[in-house]
Amino acid sequence: MKKALLFLFIMLCAISINAQTIYESFQSRKLNTTRDLKIRLPNNYDPSSNLKYPVIIVFDGDYLFEPVVGQVAFQTYFDKMPESIVVGLVQGKDRFYDSYHDEVTGLPIEFGARFYDFISTELIPHIDRNYKTSKFKVAVGHDLMANFMNAFLLKDDPIFKAYVNLSPDFKGDMDENISNRLKWLKEDVFYYMVTSSDDVAPLRNGILEANQKLNQVDNKALKYYFDDFEGHSHYTLVTGGLSQALDKIFELYKPISDREFKEDILTYEGTLDTYISKRYKKIEDLFGISKPISEDEFEKIVKAAEQRDDVASLEKIGKLANKQDPTTSYGTYYMALHAERIGKTKRAKKLYESALDLESTPHINKDLILLKVEGLAVAGDDKESDID
């Protein structure tokens, strides 16, 4: 019964992916032919909206597109990564020519060089013109196409900010070129690579050698991640690799973790409104998307402020929350909490009463606020007259 339900779920997901996928034939002047594309837009995609989305370019879209779309759907459902536009390149019999390279350098030449130009000067501009894209672009490739996509990293201003190498088949000096380039990159770049115990032996050996070189790169701009799975083949490592890669690449986007709470927030020097503002500004700068601070995140930094006995942060967090959304109660509630903590009872009572007129939230509802008002009334007003 369980197997039948699982099979049904997989079939429904496959139908959903196909139903929401745009199939397009793109005429390329560089290649003097048409190329088939698969394009998956976010569920709530609105071309008139100001929202912008990261773009994931999937080489070998014949077979890699659906696994990538499935993993993106899974992680966005749980808010572990931003909704993204996924573009799959159907390569088929052209794959050999697309990946054509110099045997010494490993870099694209002839047919491969034309395919490289097609990606950078035709495909990417086409996607940017027609869809709501951010500047954050991810390249995903398997074996030969993973080797090919690394060539984009060697440009002065790489168009991809993240590289997902699924059992890459490094050619010539490509691994050496990569490690040398990553030493000098100044802007953040994410680089993920995976192999497995049952991977193709020559590929696995080359990947392990490349991993040794990349581990020696000392550059804070580089976010390097490596996995070596046990028992997976050259093909079955793909799904696990995609899961791990997207999880690592978009780690900053995810809600505050227990580790971040303990190691970064509790020890932060300065008020916590500054910490959370910088965190979300980095999300915007890195991924090119504007993400509002959630009430859950505000609750976490308020909890941290209380654990730190950091009364000053409470008021500033409240002001930040009110600036983001003045219609909800939690910003005013935090400011009232600050006034109560410093003994300004009249001001606290007035602020709590003001919060009652605002929209309730899952954490701060009217019952909670009324308890605060009643508690202050029982305690009695202090002699303070300054309620400004």
Automatic annotation (TrEMBL):
Signal peptide segment: 1-19
Protein name per Swiss-Prot or TrEMBL: Esterase
Organism: Gelidibacter gilvus
Keyword tRNA-binding: no
Keyword Signal included in the entry's annotation: yes
InterPro entries (UniProt xref): AB_hydrolase_fold, Esterase-like, Mycobacterial_A85_antigen, TPR-like_helical_dom_sf
PANTHER family tied to this protein: ENTEROCHELIN ESTERASE-RELATED, FERRI-BACILLIBACTIN ESTERASE BESA
Assigned keywords, A-Z: Signal
Gene3D superfamilies: alpha/beta hydrolase (3.40.50.1820), Tetratricopeptide repeat domain (1.25.40.10)
